[in-house]
Amino acid sequence: MPLREALSIAEDRGLDLVEVAPNSNPPVCRIMDYGKFKYQLSKKHSHKKTIEVKEVKVRPNIDKHDLELKIKHIIRFLEDGNKAKVTLFFRGREIVRPELGMQVFEKIIERLGGKYNIETKPKLQGKSITMIIAPK
Length: 136
Prior knowledge:
- The protein is an alpha+beta fold.
- It contains 4 helices and 6 strands; from the N terminus they run H-E-E-H-E-H-E-H-E-E.
- It has 2 domains: 3-45, Translation initiation factor 3 (IF-3), N-terminal domain (Ubiquitin-like (UB roll), Roll), CATH 3.10.20.80; 53-135, 2-Layer Sandwich (Translation Initiation Factor IF3).
- The strands form 2 sheets. Strands 3-4-6-5 form a 4-stranded mixed sheet, covered by helices on one side. Strands 1-2 form a two-stranded antiparallel sheet.
- A hairpin with a 6-residue loop joins strand 1 (16-21) and strand 2.
- The longest helix is centred in the middle third of the chain and has 16 residues, at 64-79.
- The radius of gyration is 29 Å and the shape is rod-shaped.
C-alpha cells in the first residue's frame, strides 16, 4: 500500500502509522495508537522486585554446624536481593548472660565479612537480640 494512502487511513481512524520492520523489503508498518503502545511497553518493563525482610532465628547455645547452616541461609537471602533479620531468643535464665548472644552475632558478622551492609547493629530488646543485614 502506498505511504500516502496508509497515512490517510491512519489519520481517518485517529491512529498513528508506525514502522515495525524498517529493514525488510518493503518496510512493514502498522496502524496503531503509538502512545498506548509505549505505555504498555513501559508497564511491562517496570516490574520492580520488592525487597522482603527474611527472618532467621538462632539461639545463644547454637552448635557450630547449625550456625553455619543459618549463615548459608542468610547469604542466600542477601544474594537474592532481600534483607535478612537475625533474631536471637533467650529462654528462661539465658537472659542473665546476654554476652553469649552477642558472641553468636560476632561470629555471624565475622563469617559474612565486609560483603554486606549491617543496617541495624545487634541490639538487646526484651528477651531477644535483633540485627538487620542488607545487600550492598
